[in-house]
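Predict both folds.
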Amino acid sequence: MAHEDDPLEHERASWKPSSGLAVAVTDPVQNPALPPHRARVTDQDPAAMKRAVRTVYTLFYLSVAASIWSVAAYILFPIESQRIVDIRNNNLFIGLGIALALLAIGIGAIHWSKAVMSDKEFVEPRHATRGRDTTREAAVQAFAEANEESGFGRRAMIRNSLFAALVASILPGVTLFRGLAPQDVDPVHELSHTMWKEGMRLVHDPSGTPIRAADLTLGSAVHVIPKDLADLDHAEGYLEQKAKAIVLLMRLLPEDLVETEERKDWSYDGIVAYSKVCTHVGCPVALYEQQTHHLLCPCHQSQFDVTHGARVIFGPAARPLPQLPITVDAEGYLIAKSDFEEPVGPSFWERH
């Protein structure tokens, strides 16, 4: 323990840093305690409290109206019409409705806590917590006090409007699920038939130029559509048909292909054609690695081995990419031998 006449202690107390600022030896920081409580306007004026309560439940009911409007916008501006104006309005008004619904809930909750809930400051001492009866009784008491301070149990209009807003905010999302699948149709039937048929030429997407087998270079990957689809020229139904019939055409060395006996005549001189629609959730498979002969889906990183029938070698895809049987016509142009022999697209559809 240092003596009061200790010269080292005296030196520490009188030491000054090189900047010239003196260092004062002070006592430990004292607890300043809570500042005086300042009452809010809503605590002093009952009329202001009523206005605050009305504002809160009005915001919650505004959220309900915005959620209902999002559902109505989905119906009023059907995205299935393929009209640009309907697609824009669909995205705009559904988005605005959902944004307003969530914003009104947030603002209402903040205004509730700032203007209506209890504003009394309190100090909660820290102590060890144990699962004893007294602890459980204290927890029940804490919930009761929180209910009393927030007014959740007493203010029925705020409570009921909040419940209504939260329930209604889910409706737009549930409604949007309707657009994930065609209505009143059998998805397996729809995905089992594309525009490919025997003798139809393979053409470049989107130019519609026929493809000669001799013009395809080794290692090339070409985006292909049926000639009849190119002739539609973006008419009604063009996008739906293209989404099913789009094909990726690749040329490998014939000896690199490992083909089953029943599929040996599905390729031509090392040229193979596979559906571009990933069998996971339908994303476009468009990344081709020439050296490994792997196809990569950019959405969830499923990988397919082109040399082995586009089988899945990595990722969540459940089955290989469907192969389009091809050959050449008398003029050397690539043609389809038939349609796909299995449904294209995601594997979560019910399969017959």
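Second protein follows, with its predicted structure tokens after the sequence.
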Amino acid sequence: MGRPIADRMSAAALAIAGVAFAAASLVPVPAQAHVKWFAPYIVDAAPQPIEATLTNVWFWTGIALVLAFFLATRAVERSRLGEPVLAALDRASDPLHRRLDDFMRVCIGGFFIAVFAVGGVYLTPDLQTPSEWVSWAQLVIAACVFSRRTMPIAAAGIVGLWLVALRDYDFFHLLDYLALGLGVAGYLVLASSENERFRRHRFETLRWAVAIALMWSSLEKFAYPDWFYPLVEERPFLTFGLPRDVFIPMAGIAEFTLGFGLIWTPLVRRLSALALLVIFTAAVYPFGRIDLVGHALIMAVILVIAADHERQVHFVPALKRRLAGVPAGLATALVVMVVGYWGLHFAFYGQGYEPAPGAQIATHAPNAEHPHGSVAPIEPQAHDVDSTAGVAESVDPAAALFAQANERMHESMVLDPSGDVDEDFVRGMIPHHLGAVEMAEIVLEHGDDPEIRALAREILAHQREEIRMMEDWLARGGG
């Protein structure tokens, strides 16, 4: 008589999931979302004009491919197969769904314990701080998520850390982390509520938070494609053999549209979540533990979205149920996000700030473990005897790195006098401090003495803080 109905429905679910992953593979996505974690980039530099994206054929190719996937998924969802496919996904995820709130709280608590263990960061490895109390505050947040009475305290702590980070970081840069932070805080508040009318929206809050965070951060690939050039050149396997200028816009579209899919109808959002989960999981091996820590919370939320059995469609449900609603909704999301990103950037920075020679208004200090980008150390060449004073041929790699750092520092400190002693001092001290930061990172990478390593960490904390202060002073036009 053939296979049981349940088996056939499971096979149908697997087939739809296969279509989703196939569509995702047609629009390649980089294995990590925030390249700024690995190297500092100037946030307030002028973004590429949006016209450059709108006239890019690969942008529209990516749009067409994803629209085809979404429309095919919606067609299945509206057919007689729709509910059986969703039911098969329910059965596959039912063990997790029964403990979804416990899973989410454990992941939030585990994330804040991890960033406490990393130390010296606010809410992500990108946002570094020398303030020791921040790490202990994160441990308190982790402890508060396991009781419904204290979950609002944890929520307030998350929002509070974001606000404190404004002291050290640019507001526009922190917008990358606003939606997810507010979403997790909102979840904790709603999950602790005794009012079921409010509580039932807790997972919807997480869906919107991750969707907005992904759509917003994906725009960097259109506004600043050059930020991604060093990463692509360093790890060419990320492009799946595609040319760099084909891969980056299509990767941006994939990240944006899969984020958009998280706020659409049940089958679209669950398959989008599964595709994103594969993408983020694939980043763990090539990018290491820091990437795992940074993305752990967003990966947990994506898994929750994939396992959530909710069928009800909120927010313009009539539009979402129509096939024509897919292109209309995607176009609206693109317009809102693009106008918001380019408009806010112009409101904050005008046409874009050009830093003084040797200065960088960067997202964060250089990372010695991932030194690519505009401040990447130049690998010593065997013939480059003059630039490294003969050290390039040394068997000690740290000695060559020290020589290069010293040379770069002194070259950057050679400045034409402006006539303003304060400005000249600041412009000279910034490369001096950057040299100290780079040498401290070399010690942490290659040194063994505990006392010297402790001194290097102290230098990193204080010098980075002073670099930010001096760069802010220059950005304001002086005293």
